[in-house]
Amino acid sequence: MFPQTLVVLLVVAHLGFGAKVVIDKPRFRRNVCASTSSGNMTVINYPGTNGNYLNNANCDWSVCTNTSSASVRISRMDIELHPRCSYDAVSIQGVKYCGRNARDLNVPTSNGCISVRFTSDGSVRGSGFRLEVRTAQVNTTSVSNLNSTFNSSSGNSPNSTFTTSNSSGNSTFNTGSSNGNFSFGNNSSSNGNSSGNSTVDTGSSNGNFSFGNNSSSNGNSSGNSTVDTGSSNGNFSFGNNSSSNGNSSGNSTVDTGSSFGNFSFGNNSSSNGNSSGNSTIDTGTTFGNFSFSNNSSSNGNSSGNSTIDTGSSFGNFSFGNNSSSNGNSSSNSTIDTGSSFGNFSFSNNGSSNGNSSGNSTIGTGSSFGNSSNSFGNSSSGNQSLFNSCVLARSVGNMTKEIDYPGTGNYPNNAFCQWNVCTNTARARISITKMDIESHSSCSYDSLKIQNSKYCGLSTGSFTVSTNQGCVQVGFTSDFSVTKAGFTLGISPV
């Protein structure tokens, strides 16, 4: 029997020269914040009216199993969807759920009881939810047991340590995966105010990992990380990782997962200053996308935005700021269309001791501008370097020649790659000209052939093993001495 509430409606109407008070007939409305218990199972069917829940609802339940954990099955859910369930939500032990996905949860109790709350705002309404609470049969809540099959979602994980100030975290999974989802609002944060929101919308077969703040300390830090669609072997999105000693914030998003994972880091190991980063991967690739806004930034103000719109089969790499330190640095790097073996865009790499900024863009995925090529694009700083990376040209019937840079000296901070295919197991390399800054280990400027570096003035001929019938050639230069470059021929053996 549901408790009943008497509702009396008073209507006052002014008619002509007098006032008449009309008292409506009593009406009865069921209290919708209700539950039923049978044996060891408690059912909350909200709102229980075969209609939609009310606007501005606020219901609380406490279900006691007198055990250390409880099994919760959400068999029906129709609650307004939001990435962080900020509008309408059912909260179980402080963890918010929304959307339409049913799920099975194993949650730790508080003194043998779990708390359930439903809240709604003043707009969209759904048909609510039905959940069953039972005594847990198997405890699978430990996030450290990677060999078990579990779904774990917690603002503060069981292995977290929070000390000496205010910390909060929200983590949400809409669909669990077979080998676990990991979402940590704040992990081991201390000595400051930190908050994190992390969301995984669709689980993958081997787990999604989303960390709002991990090991943040000694300051104000916040992070939002989202994985929208899981991949077969995991997505990794870190808002702030090991941030300390200052104000840092990061937003990282992976929209579509790939078969071997996407990696997006807002701020990684940022310290001692103000740093912010936004990194986005729109479409995943076969072997992963990597986008780092700020990596190991320290001792100053640094910001970076990096975007990869379309992934390639072997990965795109876009670094806003990498190892920037001791100054102000900012960068924007964008890759619009990926190539088969990766695009590389570095706005600031290893920048230090001053003010530096860079914008790098790759419009269509190839090594040579808009020509199709399998080994990627490279852009550093403000240079669109594929414009100076000459094409390999045919010389005779069987030989390909690379004459770089063709005229004058090669530029500073050059980065060029070529993939020349002979379709044979071995190829002959004939270097007819080489004028590259000399160094004992070719650490400054260098010509690379199949991972072996060459510099100085040496010429000669030799054979190399190919990689599936192709030879990989690359050239890089630093920011100091420039020389006349090289000319080499590649022919089948």
Quick summary of this structure?
Residues 1-18 form the signal peptide. The chain has 493 residues and is mainly beta.
Number of DSSP-assigned strands? 38
Number of domains: 3
Strand order of the largest sheet: 14-16-18-20-22-24-26-28
Mean pLDDT: 63
Which radius of gyration do the C-alpha atoms yield? 30 Å
Through-space gap between termini? 90 Å
Q: Kindly estimate the percentage of residues that lie in beta strands according to DSSP.
A: over 45%
Give the class from helix and strand content and strand pairing. Answer: mainly beta
Region (Disordered): 144-255
Signal peptide: 1-18
Organism: Patella caerulea
InterPro entries: CUB_dom (IPR000859), Sperma_CUB_dom_sf (IPR035914)
List keywords for this structure.
493 residues, Jelly Rolls, eight-stranded parallel sheet, mainly beta, disordered N terminus, 3 domains
Give the helices and strands, then pairings.
Blueprint: E1 4-7, E2 10-15, E3 18-23, E4 27-30, E5 36-38, E6 41-46, E7 58-64, E8 69-78, E9 89-92, E10 95-97, E11 103-108, E12 113-119, E13 128-135, E14 167-173, E15 182-187, E16 194-200, E17 209-214, E18 221-227, E19 236-241, E20 248-254, E21 263-268, E22 275-281, E23 290-295, E24 302-308, E25 317-322, E26 329-335, E27 344-349, E28 356-362, E29 378-380, E30 393-395, E31 399-404, E32 415-421, E33 426-435, E34 446-449, E35 452-454, E36 460-465, E37 470-476, E38 485-492
